[in-house]
Design a protein that fits this description.
This protein is an alpha/beta fold. Helices cover about 25% and strands about 20% of the residues. Helix 3 runs parallel beside helix 5, helix 4 packs across helix 7 and helix 11 crosses helix 14. Bound molecules: iron/sulfur cluster (2 copies). The site of one iron/sulfur cluster (SF4) has 14 residues, from helix 10 and helix 11.
């Protein structure tokens, strides 16, 4: 049977074998931890602690009362060493809370399971999910409590779990499904209480046979008859929200639509897992699983790590480098961000740390466009990357917006196929940031 997929896309080498069979290891950092206040799409958090304060695991250290926001909670106990500007993975100085770790990991005891959570009004979940600081862990970092409050919950017909993990090299979601499937299915069952008209669908790329088998077994074990599992074609970017909706619901997705407009709500698999932990176990968002991999790493691993841990410490936990890396990336090779320093913290959106040697980093010189059209064929959003690149370089941001530049999902497919090595995706990231700043200014914000 042909597996469902979407139009466009590419087939980069998977390179997942380095960590596919590595069980998740727990790591407890010893050094200071750094918590950037910007860890979600939406309003920026303000620090709610000051230098010298003592904090516990799960204690709120950053908050904003705006609707589209999610608080930042400490992942360690210790003393606030500083509140100030620090370098983060996006290469900028941002406001951070720095905590001197006392290595006791004492918990804030106010975090307990939500009382009577299986029978209560499921709307109580929303407040818990917000307080627990939960965001989309696939990289989008949109506050989950906001996503779970569409204008009309009855219009949601599909509650989709994004377990595609289509980025090469990464295995954090794959391992979570293999090792802790129960929490994922239980989390989805809880969420389905919020959307009584919806069915649940878990989409997994077919290159994860063990996860598919384990999750199928778990669905049977839990009598989850309203939830199905759908293997998907291995094609990048299968895990992008719009591509996943097209593949799983066979609906054509208009570029400007929101998932709720076509009856869908999409959540990353770790997000669903974390929702269960927050509601049923009283565990807020203070850790995540990170795949540390690449041919420059001595011993690649999947690691459950407290947020705020430095990238340097994680790489040392993996035995350091075999040889000097040519490139270190936060995330996967397609959508990740090249790191300028290892002295940056793991944040909610960090799915992987990838260290590549010169041989595999493919650092190539950029040439003029030869108008081959490969980028157009590859673009899953139906855009004209060659044209968009030209208008951004000309700083014609009106043309960029008019030709759909804001619909670019920054998947990197166009850059991957370009024989002239044009830095297409990077220019679109810059173009989008500039257009949004221009539009904000025009609106007087
Ligand atoms: S233009 Fe944007 S959406 Fe299209 S392939 Fe390039 S990065 Fe992906
Ligand atoms: S793939 Fe590269 S060379 Fe070919 S049309 Fe697109 S930008 Fe030009």
């Amino acid at each position: 049977m042909r597996l469902p997929s979407f139009c466009g896309g590419i087939h980069p080498p998977q390179n997942k074998e380095l960590t596919v069979n590595k069980e998740i290891e727990n790591y407890l950092p010893t050094g200071e931890l750094v918590f950037p206040m910007a860890q979600n799409i939406g309003a920026l958090n303000e620090p709610v602690v000051k230098k010298g304060d003592t904090v516990l695991v799960g204690q709120k250290i950053g908050n904003n009362n705006a609707f589209v926001s999610a608080p930042i909670l400490s992942s360690v106990s210790g003393t606030v060493k500083d509140v100030g500007m620090r370098l983060t993975s996006c290469g900028m100085l941002e406001t951070c809370v720095v905590i001197e770790n006392d290595e006791k990991y004492e918990k804030d005891l106010s975090w307990i399971p939500l009382p009577n959570y299986e029978n209560n009004d499921p709307k109580e979940y929303i407040a818990r999910i917000r307080e627990a600081g939960i965001v989309g862990y696939g990289g989008a970092t949109f506050p989950t409590a906001v996503k779970l409050t569409p204008p009309d919950p009855k219009c949601i017909k599909w509650l989709i779990v994004n377990a595609a993990e289509c980025e090469p090299y990464l295995n954090c979601d794959n391992r979570l499904m293999i090792e802790e499937p129960g929490k994922i299915v239980k989390g989805l069952k809880l969420l389905m209480r919020l959307f009584p008209e919806a069915v649940g669908v878990i989409g997994i790329e077919s290159n994860k046979p063990e996860a598919i088998a384990v999750m199928k077994e778990e669905l049977k074990k839990q009598n989850a008859f309203k939830i199905s599992l759908q293997p998907l074609v291995v094609k990048y970017p299968q895990g992008a929200e719009k591509m996943l909706i097209e593949a799983l619901t066979k609906q054509e997705y208009v570029m400007t639509a929101l998932p709720a407009d076509v009856g869908c709500l999409v959540l990353n698999v770790r997000t669903v897992h974390q929702i269960y932990e927050a509601i049923a176990e009283g565990l807020p968002s203070t850790t995540r699983v990170v795949t540390v991999t690449g041919d420059a790493i001595v011993n690649p691993k999947n690691i459950r790590v407290p947020l705020g841990t430095s990238v340097r410490e994680l790489i040392e936990f993996c035995g350091g480098f075999k040889e000097e890396p040519a490139k270190i990336i936060s995330g996967g090779p397609m959508m990740g961000i090249t790191l300028r320093s290892m002295e940056v913290p793991v944040v909610k959106g960090t799915s992987g740390i990838l260290a590549l040697t010169k041989k595999s980093a493919h650092l190539k010189e950029e040439f003029a466009c030869i108008r081959c059209g490969r980028c157009v064929e590859a673009c899953p959003m139906g855009l004209l990357p060659n044209t968009l690149n030209k208008v951004v370089l000309l700083r014609d941001y009106v043309a960029f917006e008019e030709t759909g530049g804001l619909n670019c999902i920054e998947c990197g497919s166009c850059s991957y196929v370009c024989p002239a090595n044009r830095h297409l995706t990077q220019t679109f990231r810059d173009g989008k940031v500039t257009v949004m700043a221009i539009n904000r200014k025009a609106a007087g914000k």
